[in-house]
Amino acid sequence: MAHTDLSYLNHQSSKFTRLWHYSVGFYGVWIAHIGRQMKLFHQLAEGPMTMEELIITTKLYPAAVRDWCSAAEAYQFIVAKDGKFQLKEHMKRILIEKDSPDYLGGQFSYLALRSLGYGGFEELFKSGKTRNTLLSLDAIKQATDWDHYALLTIARHQKKLHSVLSNGCRLLDVGCGTGGLLSKIYKEYPKSQLVGIDPSNKALSLARQIAGGKPITLANMSAESMKFADEFEIVFLCESLYRIKDKERVVSNCWRALKDHGTIVIVEGFLPESKHDYTTSQLIMGMQLDFSLQGHRFMNKTEIRSLLKGRFLRIHFQGLGGNVYLVTATKK
Question: At 20, is the secondary structure helix, strand, or coil?
Answer without folding.
Answer: helix
